[in-house]
Amino acid sequence: MDLSPSDVEDKTTREVLHELIQYVVTTDEEMQEKTTRSGGRTDLNIYLCDNQGYEIGKLDSWITRLAEDDSATSYAESYVADHTFSESIANDDISLVTIKTPAKNRTDEFVFVTNDGYLWVLTTVHSDWRKKTIENLLGYLPCVERLYLSADNLEELTDGIQDSRVSGFTAKYHAPNRERDATLMFSGAEEDDLEKAEETFDAKPTRIEFDQTNSPSTAIQGSNTNEGRLTMRSVRRGSEAKAVNTLLGLTEGYQELDRQSFEVEHPPQRRELDSGFTIDGFTAVELTDPDRSSATNEELISDLEENVLNGNQYRYGIRDSGRKIRVYDTDHQETFDIALEPPNLILYARETTTALSFRSFVRDVYDELDSTYSLSKSDNPVATQ
């Protein structure tokens, strides 16, 4: 991108999206000539993040906090040392952030937008540098976390795009005690290819590409991933307004599906009574029905210890004769419980639990333990004596 703060100053989110859509506008001929969704061409990417305290104009204080944090990992320390950061405020909700990599004589730009409890990061930086700059920054900032969708929710989100079809996807299969892992990548997908991949390999989509028409041919090409990133690859000239509407619909849908999966609406609260105490509130995230037979509690604990709980993020203790694990998430300073119903896992919120720790743990389970779990959430403002 080649933006200045004045380019986004005093503009609405819709107007900012329209400004950035211009970087991916193509002619009809250019769109027909493209044979791939990857490579050196410019994409518009939007990272959607849960925002638990980031304010426009405060990036410098967060970088200083990272630099002075004695508990920071060596990776975070190296990241801060290898880059310089600046933030130019456009208005109360929008800023232009630059991340410089002096060793490579490189400067990359990102638009930050705060929106109703979320942080959006918009950029046209190439994927090789996005991973080294903004994706690392979002991973190290303790106050933000990229949203996450289960495979079923990712499909639901993409199915809701008007006048569109699935044109490609990446799907993965991973489960313990199986002889195979699989990563399937389809470009130019035909109708039902995604369903066939799920039926044949039990592979779940992590990225879905779509083509969207606009009277009557393909005018918009984009993709959604399950890790909080939307991509607009190409927009045929004259279809910019429809592309903006599509992005706004996707961001709203993504945020709502993430809320349905992870938001702790009723955290348990202990109230003292004359005759004892009562617990008000209940929220549970359920991971059920994986593609494997039931295991014992001991085997399930062993799988979790080996694949999910083995890093620096978690401290944990086994309780109730091996039927429950209490987990402390050091990244988010939150505690939650895991009830073991082999092979199912039920995550229960405690007083300090928010979506941050629930989402982070579920992502680790899908990535490191078993990608075939189904996800659901239940909650209630119940009182139990």
Short characterization:
This protein has 385 residues and is of the alpha+beta class. The chain has helices at residues 5-8, 13-21, 28-33, 59-68, 74-82, 127-132, 134-140, 151-159, 193-201, 240-262, 297-307, 355-369; strands spanning 25-26, 44-51, 84-91, 94-101, 106-115, 118-123, 144-146, 164-173, 182-187, 204-213, 218-225, 229-236, 269-273, 276-288, 314-319, 324-329, 334-341, 344-349, 374-384. 31% of the residues lie in helices and 37% in strands.
Structure commentary:
The chain has twelve helices and 19 strands. Among the domains are: 5-31 and 38-146, Alpha-D-Glucose-1,6-Bisphosphate, Chain A, domain 4, CATH 3.30.530; 269-380, Double Stranded RNA Binding Domain (2-Layer Sandwich). The protein has helices spanning 5-8, 13-21, 28-33, 59-68, 74-82, 127-132, 134-140, 151-159, 193-201, 240-262, 297-307, 355-369; strands at residues 25-26, 44-51, 84-91, 94-101, 106-115, 118-123, 144-146, 164-173, 182-187, 204-213, 218-225, 229-236, 269-273, 276-288, 314-319, 324-329, 334-341, 344-349, 374-384. It is of the alpha+beta class.
